[in-house]
Amino acid sequence: MKQYIGMIILTLMILGLACRSNSNPETGLIRGQVKDTTGSNIAMATVELGQLSLQILTNDTGYYEIPDIEPGDHVMKASKPTYLPAIETVTVTAGEASTVNFTIIQNPRNVLSEMLTTACHCGDPSRIEAYGLKDQHHSRMVYLEYHASSDAHFDTWDPFSTVGSETRRLYYCDTFLIGALLFVDGTTCLTSSSAYAAVIDSVLAVPSPLLIDLSGTYASSAQSGNVSVVITALDSISDTDLEVGYAVYERGPIYYSPIGETVPFRYVLVNLLIPDGVNLTYGQPVTLNKDFTVPDIIGLPLPPFHVVDVNNIGIAVYVQSVNSKRVLQAQSLDF
Fold first, then answer.
1. pLDDT of residue 197
2. In this structure, are 87 and 117 located in the same domain?
3. Which of 191, 224, 233, 288 could staple 229 via S-S, CB 3.0–4.6 A?
4. What's the pTM?
C-alpha cells in the first residue's frame, strides 16, 4: 500500500513539474530576469507583451514567468519608473520555454547650470571652477553663461531689459541676486566656488523622471529656426504646474574684456523664449514645437556689446515647476 501511495505521489510530482514548465502543450512559456547595468536584480519591474496586453511584475530576484503564450513572434518590454524601457523580440515555440533577459538603464539626469558673470564676478577662481564642472560632466550639464558689463548697469542689461527679463525672473530664478554666481536647476547657490562640484554631484545623483528628445532646424541666413521637443514621463509626476522653457545660446567661445582681461565665455544666452505649459502623464509622450530667432547683438544699448555669431547657435530646453522652480530635466541641441 505504501509503495502504491509512493508511486502516486511521484507521478503527481512529475505532472506538477510538467505543468510548471508549460501547462498547455499547444502554447509556450517566457521567463527571464530584469537587471540594471551593474548586474543587480530589479524587483517590481513591469514586463509586458504589447500585442496581448499582458503585464507582470518581477519578484525580489528580478525574475518573471509568463505561461500560456501563443506560438510566434512577440515584442516584449521591461520598464520601471525612472528607468529607460528595454525592448526585446522573442519567438515562442509550442511546448517549450523561452528565456528573455532584460537590462534597463536608469534615466540619467541632466543639470541646467547657469553662471552669471559681471565685472566683479567673471574672474578666477569662480569662472575656472564653473568651466571645470562642464568639462567634468560633459553632456550631463546643459550649461549656460550670461554676462553684464558692470554691476551698475545690471538692471538695464539685455536680455534682462527686454521681455526676457521678466520671463527669467518669474520662470527660472526665484531669488536672482547679483552676488550669486551659480544657479542649478532653479536654485540659487549662494556658496563658494569650491562647493559647486558637490552641489552639482548631489543633483546628478537623483535620476530624472523625464526623457527629453530634441530635433530641429535652423537657418543662419534667416537667423531663425524651430525645435521639436518630445517629452516622456518615466514616472508619475506630482507637479501640475509644469512649463517648458527655451534658451537660445551662442556656443562660443566669446572673448570679452570687462575688467581688462580677455575672458572666454561659452554657451552664452542670446534669447530667452516665453515658456509653454505642459501636462504630462506616465508613459505618454508629449510633442511641442517652438519657433525661435537669433538677435544681431547682445549687451547694453551702448558699447560694450557683442555681435552674435549666427553660425554658432544652439538651444537648451528644460521642464520646470513654476511654483517650486524645480527643474525636472534639461537637454540641449547644437545646430
1. 77
2. no
3. 288
4. 0.75
